[in-house]
Design a protein that fits this description.
Layout: H1 19-28, E1 42-48, E2 54-59, E3 65-69, E4 74-78, E5 84-88, E6 94-99, E7 105-109, E8 114-119, E9 125-132, E10 138-140, E11 146-151, E12 163-169, E13 172-179, E14 185-190, E15 196-200, E16 210-215, E17 222-227, E18 232-237, E19 245-249, E20 257-262, E21 268-275, E22 278-283, E23 289-293, E24 298-304
Antiparallel strand pairs: 1-24, 2-3, 3-4, 4-5, 6-7, 7-8, 8-9, 10-11, 11-12, 12-13, 14-15, 15-16, 16-17, 18-19, 19-20, 20-21, 22-23, 23-24
């Protein structure tokens, strides 16, 4: 008999903020972050706060942001104004999250025997598969199949570490690619042509230079697509799965996170820095960039400044 955590779906509750609380909220949400270094013409501001242990981010077709609170074990839906509501809780170390075109939400639990869990648009919760080795990334392909990454890094095993990309569809679950290098797969993304890109969170440590791995799902062939980044944690493409690719480097030293952009040739350049520890990144249809800061619990928005100043 399998034992599952009791998962509760929280019904949104209407509430009224006092004038003082509302004022305090507005002063935080939307506050410009002058300490972040950005290209000319861009501005960063606080989009949402108090996402305890902010981790995975995903964007729905309707434009809502979904954010994972790894510490509290819950999922937040955040509207266009940065107001959040918890839609499900009771998860164990949730990390990766993805939303399908039909509105199905997928999350993975980054634990030794982690689960892939689905949340339907109506709020039903389903354990799709379990017994996964520290899964961190999840993505949905155009055909509806689900991709997940796993790694044995956190298991305490002696290196080399087993890292794997698995595909789940109507035929079951099977491995697309696995390695026994000193790699640990974290986030995963798929471009407009269906090619898979995976972050190596050990990149930049010691002699490990491989940062992004490229995989062809049709035959499992792979190559190192990008080198030289530090602690790659989150990855996404621009609008409609097009390049450039955006990568968050969790910690480039002393808890300082960074965003880099990678072109179609695998050449990386720094886009923004001066963050706290970063976990994930998404880009909406208007080109706004959202990143999650683990240590601060903030979701930060980066946009082009219409006035051309910071």
């Amino acid at each position: 008999m399998h034992r599952y955590l009791a998962l509760s779906l929280l019904t949104p509750v209407s509430f009224v903020l006092s004038n003082q609380l509302f004022s305090d909220y507005e002063q935080v949400q939307g506050h410009l972050l002058a300490g972040i270094q950005l290209p000319t013409g861009y501005a960063a501001s606080v989009f949402c706060t108090d996402v305890n242990g902010a981790d995975g981010l995903a964007l729905s077709e309707s434009g809502d942001i979904y954010a994972v609170s790894e510490v509290d074990g819950c999922i937040f839906r955040i509207d266009e104004n940065g107001r959040k509501e918890s839609i499900a809780d009771g998860f164990r170390n949730p990390e990766g999250i993805a939303v399908s075109g039909s509105g199905m939400i997928y999350i993975v639990e980054d634990i030794e025997k982690g689960r892939l869990i689905g949340i339907t648009p109506s709020g039903d919760i389903e354990v799709i598969t379990e017994g996964l080795s520290f899964p961190e990334g999840v993505a949905v392909m155009k055909d509806g199949s689900i991709l997940i990454t796993t790694s044995s890094l956190e298991s305490g095993l002696i290196p080399p570490f087993l890292s794997e990309v698995m595909r789940i569809n109507s035929e079951g679950i099977h491995s697309i690619y696995s390695s026994l290098y000193l790699w640990s797969f974290s986030d995963i993304a798929v471009d407009s042509s269906g090619i898979i890109y995976v972050c190596n969170e050990l990149s930049g440590y010691g002699f490990i230079s491989a940062s992004i791995i490229q995989i062809d799902p049709s035959n499992g062939s792979w190559s190192v697509f990008c080198r030289g980044l530090q602690a790659c944690e989150g990855i996404c493409f621009d609008v409609n799965g097009a390049f450039p690719m955006y990568v968050v480097e969790e910690d480039t030293g002393e808890g300082s996170g960074r965003i880099s952009i990678v072109d179609e040739e695998g050449v990386a350049s720094v886009f923004a820095e001066g963050f706290q520890n970063l976990e994930d990144i998404v880009v909406d249809r208007s080109g706004r960039i959202f990143v999650s800061e683990d240590t601060s619990g903030k979701i930060i928005s980066i946009r082009k400044d219409a006035h051309g100043d910071q």
